[in-house]
Amino acid sequence: MIRFLAAVFAALTFTSPVILSAEPITPVLLKTPVGFATITPGLGTTIKWVAERVAVASNETVQMQIYEPDKLVAPFEILDAVSSGKVDAGYSAAAFWAGKLPAAPLFMSVPFGPEAGEFLAWMWYGNGMKLYQEMYDSAGYRVKVHVCGVLSPETSGWFIKEIKGREDLSGLKMRFAGLGGQVMQKLGVSVSMLPGGEVFLALEKKALDATEFSTPAIDERMGLYKIARYNYYPGWHQPATLLELLINKDAWNRMHASQQMLIDLTCRAATADSFANNEAIQFEVMRRNVEKHKVVNKYWDAEMLTLFQQTWNEVAEEQAAKHPFFNKAWEDLKLFRAKHDIWKAYAFLPRPQPDTLK
């Protein structure tokens, strides 16, 4: 009997483990229109980075078919198309939906901060993502949202004429996106929200006197320096810009948990990669702007920055008073930032401001 038990024990101990059959994973193809040309550094290149890596990492069980702007869906129609199931996914920025969802710009970029690190801290480890998803759910949009990319600070805009004070803003025709556009409008600027492909032509035809668009690397590709000579810094209106991947809720729920996890992790990796890449490519463009394109880099003086910030505070309070969900998200972000300020005040080196930027 002892020998028999010993033999059974040995068999249980040294035989190969039984491997259960894995649950089959149904391949997924996500047709994904995008809001930005995929050659655009950071704005468009990130979703291609995601699509390539998701396919390889999933052994082709998750694939994304990327459609350039207007090839399948117009950029400003992506949210509706994804929600209705016309397409499986879409890549854009939340501020595109400001006309329908007043709080949406808070999940893309906020004037005067937070910067990228603080913004992602709120999104991933504060209540940011919970509120982001709630915004879509409560408005009836059937989408699952992911932060999937972040841009470095933008420039503050390109101006045909030098801006010497507040009076030079009055009556100016300017393309300006997001919450910063509301600030400029309050300061007397005639603001329009043109898609990127129309900005250069509008400047050329003098339908615009100025424009902000994005980072130096992106603005150079658009050729803005050819018409507007004065490039202003810092990008007070967009110190960090989050990009979003929207997936239709039904398509998301049909995915295997491993496919869902892979998309989430790849978007997080893409966010880190896009930020590193953006930080690496700006300074050479700034140098080239001055040396080759004869751009005059300008830095807003303290008086103008104070004016922008005070006006932004007024805009934020007005929006919070008019829109309950804006108020909910804004109050949560302010509370998080007040706590983060304790860390920032002690941990961060001071950042001296240039007298001139050459």
What does this structure look like?
The protein has 358 residues and is of the alpha/beta class. It contains twelve helices and eleven strands. The longest helix has 35 residues, at 257-291. 41% of the residues are buried.
Q: Brief description of this entry?
A:
With 358 residues, the protein is an alpha/beta fold. The chain contains twelve helices and eleven strands.
Name the descriptors.
single chain, alpha/beta, 358 residues, six-stranded mixed beta sheet
Secondary-structure map:
Elements: H1 2-14, E1 28-33, H2 45-57, E2 62-67, H3 78-84, E3 89-92, H4 116-125, H5 128-138, E4 143-151, E5 157-159, E6 173-175, H6 178-186, E7 190-192, H7 196-204, E8 210-211, H8 216-222, E9 230-233, E10 241-248, H9 249-254, H10 257-291, E11 296-299, H11 302-322, H12 324-347
Parallel strand pairs: 1-2, 6-7, 6-8, 9-11
Antiparallel strand pairs: 3-10, 4-10, 5-8, 5-9
Helix pairs in contact: 2-10, 4-5, 6-11, 11-12
